[in-house]
Amino acid sequence: MSHKSAKDFFRPLAVGAPLPLREIPARPSRAIHFFDPSNEKMAAKIPDMVGTVDVLLGNLEDAVKADNKVAAREGLVKIAQSTDFGPTQLWTRINSLDSPWVLDDLTTLVPAIGEKLDVIMVPKVQGAEDIHYVDRLLAQLEAKAGISKPILIHAILETARGVANVEEICGASPRMQGLSLGPADLAADRKMKTTRVGGGHPGYLVREDAPRGEDGLPILDAQRAIFQQDLWHYTIAKMVDACATHGIYPYYGPFGDIKDTVACEDQFRNAFLLGCVGTWSLHPVQIKIANRVFSPSVEDIAHARRVVAAMGDGTGAVMIDGKMEDDASLKQCLVLVELAEKLAEIDPDLKATYDAIPTEA
Ligand SMILES: CC(C)(COP(=O)(O)OP(=O)(O)OC[C@H]1O[C@@H](n2cnc3c(N)ncnc32)[C@H](O)[C@@H]1OP(=O)(O)O)[C@@H](O)C(=O)NCCC(=O)NCCSC(=O)C[C@H](O)C(=O)O
Ligand SMILES: [Mg+2]
C-alpha cells in the first residue's frame, strides 16, 4: 500500500478546502445519541435534547426505511438549520459507500449544513481506501461550499476486513476522529452465531471445574458456577490500541436490549474501563447511563487527586492506603483527572459534584 509523504499528509485535498487539523479535539462525547430525522416524533424532541447529551447524530443508514431515506436527509437539513446546538455536537451517519444514497447524502449535507456538522460517521468501512474516498470528496465539497473547518470522519468497525485493517483505517487521514464498534453487522459478517445488537450471550461462557467423585471422574450433575464472557473484548481492545496509537477516539456502539438497562450499563462500563471515551445511545433512556458510566466516579477522582498531590514532581514511589503508587499509576490518575476537568467544562452538575470532593491529606 502506498502512503502519502509526511509533508503532504496535512495538506488540503482540494484547492480552497480548510486546513486539516493536527490534533483531534478531545470534546466530550460520552453518548452519541441516534435519531431518525424522518421520524417526526423523534425529530420533534431533538431541540430539547440539546445540552442534555454530548452528541446528537442524525442517522441516515440502517434503521431508516429505504422509502424514508430522502425524508431523513431532508429532515436532518431542516433540524440542523433551525437548531442552535450550543455545546452539543452534531454528527450524522451516512449510508454505506456502496449504497444508492450516499453520494446524495454527502453532496446535500455538506453545502447545506457543513458548517454545523462536526463529524460524519461512515459505516462498514473496509480499509483505508474507503476513508481516502470520503476524505477527497469532503475536501472538494468543503472547498466548493466555502466551509471554514474540516468535517471529521468517524469509521464504524463492522466487517471482518475492517477489523483486520483497523490500523490503516485510523491512520488514513487527518480527518479521522475515531472508531465505533458495530457489533450487529460485524457478527453477521464474521458469521458469528448470534442474533443480538451488541451485549453478551449466555452461551459464551466459562464453567467452574467439576468436582471429582471417588472414581476420579467429573460429577457432571454437580452445581457449578458459570461466568459469562464478553464476546466483544478482543475487538474493543484492538480498536482501543489502534485509536490510541493514532491519537483518535474509540467508542463502544449500540446496545439493542433497550429495556435491560443493567446489562447496558455493564457493557458500557467494560468499554469505559478498557479505554473507550463514549458509546451510542439508541433510546433516551441510554443517555443517562452513558453520561454516568463515561464520567469518572467521585471515588476515582478523589483517589486520583490524592495520588497527584502525593507524587510531587511525578517521580518516585509513595504508599497510599497500603498501595504503592508511582510514575505509572500517576499517569493513569492524570487520565481521569484531565477527563473530569474536560467534562466539568460542559456539565455544570458534574462540575459541582467534582468541586464538592473534599481534599484529603
Ligand atoms: C428502539 C426504538 C425503535 C424504540 O422506539 P419506541 O418503541 O418508540 O420507544 P418508546 O415508546 O420507549 O419511546 C418513548 C418516547 O421516546 C421517543 N424516542 C424513542 N427513541 C428515541 C430516540 N432515539 N431519540 C429521540 N426520541 C426517541 C419516542 O418517539 C417516544 O416519544 P413519545 O411517544 O412522544 O413519548 C427507537 O428508540 C429507535 O428507533 N431508536 C434508534 C434506533 C437506531 O438508530 N438504530 C440504528 C443504530 S444501531 C445499528 O445501526 C447497528 C450497528 O450499525 C451495528 O452494526 O451494530
Ligand atoms: Mg451496522
TrEMBL record:
A Pfam family matched in the record: HpcH_HpaI
Essential cofactor(s): Mg(2+)
What keywords are annotated for this sequence in UniProt? Lyase, Magnesium, Metal-binding
Domain (HpcH/HpaI aldolase/citrate lyase) spans 33-196
Q: Which GO terms describe its biological process?
A: oxaloacetate metabolic process
Locate the residues binding Mg(2+). Answer: 158, 185
Q: Which residues bind substrate?
A: 93, 158
Taxonomically, which superkingdom?
A: Bacteria
Q: Which GO terms describe its molecular function?
A: lyase activity; magnesium ion binding
Entry-linked PANTHER family: CITRATE LYASE SUBUNIT BETA, LYASE BETA SUBUNIT, PUTATIVE (AFU_ORTHOLOGUE AFUA_4G13030)-RELATED
Report the protein name in the record.
CoA ester lyase
The organism named in the record is Nocardioides humilatus
Q: What is the lineage of its organism?
A: Bacteria, Bacillati, Actinomycetota, Actinomycetes, Propionibacteriales
